[in-house]
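Q: Predict the bound structure with adenosine-5'-triphosphate.
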Amino acid sequence: MKIDIEDLSVAYQGHTVVAGACLLAASGEITGLVGPNGSGKSTLLRTVYRHLKPVAGRVLLDGTDVRALSPARAARHVAALPQERSGDFELTVREVVAMGRTPYKRAFAGEDAADRELVSRALADVEMADHAERRFTELSGGERQRVLLARAFAQQPDVLVLDEPTNHLDVRHQVELLGLLRARRRSTLISLHDLNAAAAVCDRLHVLHDGHVVASGPPRTVLTPALLAEVFGVRAAVAEHPLTGDPLIAFDHRRPLAAAPQAGSERSEQQAPPGRPHRPDGARDGAAAVRAAPGTAPRQTP
Ligand SMILES: Nc1ncnc2c1ncn2[C@@H]1O[C@H](COP(=O)(O)OP(=O)(O)OP(=O)(O)O)[C@@H](O)[C@H]1O
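A: Predicted complex:
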């Protein structure tokens, strides 16, 4: 199932924080949202899982506006791992994961064998099967995150919407979670702060800056030193990962703040200036010009 986000604007108390965003998350692909703090990633994701209503624009699931779906129908299509947590559940881990089956149940209907099997599998996927009978409130932050992810898996959605799913996870569980997402090949829209993780796991990236989508494309063409300087304000080199061949970003921790880009400097085809809406056009994807951050030697990625 694909997600089409068309000219989406979202506001809090009249203050627009996502402005005319257009992006496509293709069926079966992992689509990443990256951007600085406050750029609008969570807000955009909240409109996809219907927590927020846009002031303009639409979110289409295979052409159907998500707001036209009943809550149960929407929950069968979209499972979310939001940043905001709806209270601490006084439930066992297994009961929390079983909540993922609710959209498929008639009122007061209990679990059947198929539900129990799906819940067990979801718990095993996130390595929490041994904790199934523990209280959710007794878990560490990373363990809770994995249980909530298992709940999303148990929901068997067409689309997974994950807001910073690697928060709280140690490095092994981060790697495993992202590997699991790749192995599942389910349509996934994911926000990530870790740009190296985004480069490794995402088929396409959309970069948000001040509520605008300013660049879109495969990680290799989007994550350039120029964009990292301009959008994130950091000096960085982009190399090839020696083990995987993915883009590998090395930040300059000694001089983190990049100088403002030179006026009239070269810009890749997919990169609109911050503050100006970018309309992704898959047909125009291709190798983008790679410009080094100010003060570094220019380099080309393959
Ligand atoms: N409930 C809210 N009420 C008012 N303003 C909000 C609310 N939630 C977010 N904002 C504001 O909207 C803007 C975008 O926030 P959002 O959480 O979408 O950004 P983000 O890119 O996900 O940030 P981060 O990387 O820090 O999680 C920010 O300026 C934020 O302060």
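A: The CA atoms of residues 83 and 110 lie 29 Å apart.
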